[in-house]
Amino acid sequence: MGKLASKVQRRILLLVTDLRIGGTPSVVRELALRLVEDAEFHVHVACLDHGGLVGEQLKSRGIALTPLNATGRFDLRVVGRLARLIRREKIGTVFSFLVHANAAAAMASYFTSGVRFLQSIQTTQPNPRWHWKVQHTIARRAQMIVVPSPSASDAAMQWAGVDEAKLRVIPNAVDIGEFDRIAHQGNGRRIGFIGRLDPIKRIEDLVAAMPLLPEDYRLDIFGDGEMRKSLQSMISSRRLEQRITLHGEIAGPAPALSQIDLLVLPSDAEGFGLVLIEAMAAGVPVIGTNVPGIRDVIENGVSGLLCEPRNPRALADAIAKISGDAILREKLVAGGIERVRQRYDWSKVIESYRDLLG
């Protein structure tokens, strides 16, 4: 008898709102790269807009990418383009991320057949409420909804009315081997923020904390977004230009992490806080606000410090505490690396995705 036919590949479409630098696009990129290593999966990535730097990174790694070229958030023409893409590529599973992509996939589901639809909710912030109303309506079109943390699960149940039985927690992840421990020669006084300059991140609280610290403390802000102009104005009005640098968008976190001694995430809410585990994996101690998402990741006093949100004094005190105590810094670095190794390394998390998509 001849050889048995090879196993049919599972054709997966990962759909995300945009592919600019950010937590969720990075998760989509890393998931795609790991799934294609498994011969069982054929992976195609699509985004609602025109693409972005993460999209270029995907293409450079040989991942099929289709921008759907939406002209705005409510360009319904992307639904037809998405449905045609699903049929043309013979997609068996569509896995969408964030509410706009979830909504587009839910609408496209009416124009396709024999396709499994999965959604992902990556936020815990209560506003805008209409996002949650939309998510409530479209959740019925998903077989399962993936969230990165227990806090995100609670938010989905509370604000979108998603049935708990439909939710599955799969944490975000990093490849700890790609973040070799960075040997810092500094004095612990170079502070960093890495992420989109978005109002939910409360970067202004971190800027306001700087005058409460000695003048030799420096703050490096890596990222871009709608808050850039207001942050620059705030920095100028407080005459902090010599102490705070806005670096703009970066291609990845590693170069930024190599320049800082401490990472701070002062957000009002996070679905998870991917940058926290990136910093932990790199051996950079972390401070976060005690809010949903962040407190799922940081074990206070073990893998980082938690402090009160919207409180520049609390941020300054936490920064000074870590910077002034080398023994505490080493404890938090070791605890952070161990937490990533045990919970958030891709070698462990990818199995949950294979099970979900298999």
Features:
13 strands, six-stranded parallel sheet, globular, alpha/beta, Rossmann fold
Q: What does the model show?
A:
39% of the residues lie in helices and 17% in strands. It is α/β, with parallel strands linked by helices and 358 residues long. It folds into 2 domains: 10-169, Glycogen Phosphorylase B (Rossmann fold); 176-343, Glycogen Phosphorylase B (Rossmann fold). Strands 3-2-1-4-5-6-7 form a 7-stranded parallel β-sheet, with helices on both faces. A 6-stranded parallel β-sheet has the order 10-9-8-11-12-13, with helices on both faces. It is globular. The model is unreliable at 1-6 (pLDDT under 50).
Query: What does the average pLDDT come to?
Result: 94
How much strand?
Answer: 15-25%
What are the low-pLDDT stretches, counting only 5+ consecutive residues below 50? 1-6
- Output the structural class: alpha/beta
Give the overall shape, derived from the CA principal axes. Answer: globular
Provide the fold topology:
Elements: E1 10-16, H1 23-35, E2 41-47, H2 53-60, E3 64-67, H3 77-88, E4 93-97, H4 99-108, E5 116-120, H5 129-138, E6 144-147, H6 150-160, E7 167-169, E8 190-194, H7 203-209, E9 218-222, H8 228-237, E10 244-248, H9 253-257, E11 262-265, H10 274-281, E12 286-289, H11 294-297, E13 305-307, H12 312-323, H13 326-344, H14 346-357
Parallel strand pairs: 1-2, 1-4, 2-3, 4-5, 5-6, 6-7, 8-9, 8-11, 9-10, 11-12, 12-13
